[in-house]
Amino acid sequence: MRVAIAGAGAVGRSIAGELLENGHEVLLIDKAPTAISVERVPMAEWLLADACEITSLDEAALQRCNVVIAATGDDKVNLVVSLLAKTEYGVPRVVARVNNPKNEWLFNESWGVDVAVSTPRLMSALVEEAVSVGDLVRLLRFSHGDANLVELTLPEESALAGTQVGDVQWPEDTSLVTIIRGTRVLTPSREDSLEAGDELLFVAAQAREEQLEDLLSARRRPDGTV
């Protein structure tokens, strides 16, 4: 997979390093000469250019990229890069960094963004996830379909503890994608049973989040019924 990253700062270089380790081709683009640090990510391609300029993106051959990541520290730049990548070059997947949470509402399909990653929101979500059990935590927002990646740790008293995944009547527009149990990461099957303390990751429509939280947090009655 070929990935172009606009913004060769600490965030862009870190993403590039991870992608290179996983065998992908990476192009780093930045207009600041001081940001071009080839020795820090020697396996990547580097381009000294303004990612908001069509001529620069032509030089980068953006049409050959499977993914574009707008990772600069400027939300305006990230929006422009996302829009150009999607509308001018037809890049299948555009991921954009949100620096100011107040701008998060702009990072949607109208600006060519498929996935918006807000660092402040993600950090606060991780704090919430670390201290809360039974509460739904929103980790990531997907622009298409108004869906979010959400997490909930199944509480001890949950009525669903011990229930097989296939026997649960999940809300519409929700999908259980991963169960994290201790150090194990499980791809759920219908026969897998939910256990108290499981970290459950869902892709869910925002309108269904409250219903999903109520379902997972519902307590079993003293007589054992739900």
TrEMBL record:
<dbReference type="GO" id="GO:0015079">
    <property type="term" value="F:potassium ion transmembrane transporter activity"/>
</dbReference>
<dbReference type="InterPro" id="IPR003148">
    <property type="entry name" value="RCK_N"/>
</dbReference>
<dbReference type="Pfam" id="PF02080">
    <property type="entry name" value="TrkA_C"/>
</dbReference>
<feature type="domain" description="RCK C-terminal">
    <location>
        <begin position="137"/>
        <end position="218"/>
    </location>
</feature>
<dbReference type="Pfam" id="PF02254">
    <property type="entry name" value="TrkA_N"/>
</dbReference>
<dbReference type="InterPro" id="IPR006036">
    <property type="entry name" value="K_uptake_TrkA"/>
</dbReference>
<dbReference type="InterPro" id="IPR036291">
    <property type="entry name" value="NAD(P)-bd_dom_sf"/>
</dbReference>
<keyword id="KW-0520">NAD</keyword>
<dbReference type="InterPro" id="IPR050721">
    <property type="entry name" value="Trk_Ktr_HKT_K-transport"/>
</dbReference>
<dbReference type="GO" id="GO:0005886">
    <property type="term" value="C:plasma membrane"/>
</dbReference>
<protein>
    <recommendedName>
        <fullName>Trk system potassium uptake protein TrkA</fullName>
    </recommendedName>
</protein>
<feature type="domain" description="RCK N-terminal">
    <location>
        <begin position="1"/>
        <end position="117"/>
    </location>
</feature>
<keyword id="KW-0813">Transport</keyword>
<dbReference type="InterPro" id="IPR036721">
    <property type="entry name" value="RCK_C_sf"/>
</dbReference>
<keyword id="KW-0630">Potassium</keyword>
<keyword id="KW-0633">Potassium transport</keyword>
<dbReference type="InterPro" id="IPR006037">
    <property type="entry name" value="RCK_C"/>
</dbReference>
<keyword id="KW-0406">Ion transport</keyword>
